[in-house]
Amino acid sequence: MSGDAARVSTEGFPVLDEIVRRRQTWPLVAAKHGVNNPVPPWKTSLDGMCDVLDRSCGTDEKLHFTFKERRDEEDELTATRYAELPYPENQLVALAHSLLARGVIDEQDLRQRLAAIRSRLEAD
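== Thiocyanate hydrolase subunit beta ==
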């Protein structure tokens, strides 16, 4: 599906646009909670998820893209649509965008998961 990268990079998702508008980047969240670590705690999970996707692209029929296509989409999305987000937030949102665009994840499910995480964070 090598022609899909341009299509994927041009469509938007309200749930991701809301994330960008909130501007809840790790430096701001870390400062709010008194955390000094410059690396978000979720970065290792993001790296692991990317590694698993990259290894699964050729073997999982639900993943309709190759390693190169996923990386090309990430590069394009982080440089354009999500350029105002810092790294690694732009990488995370670009990955979510690609997975939403390809139907690997559902926008409503993502909203529910984000709400659950937000609820846990705000309970502290």
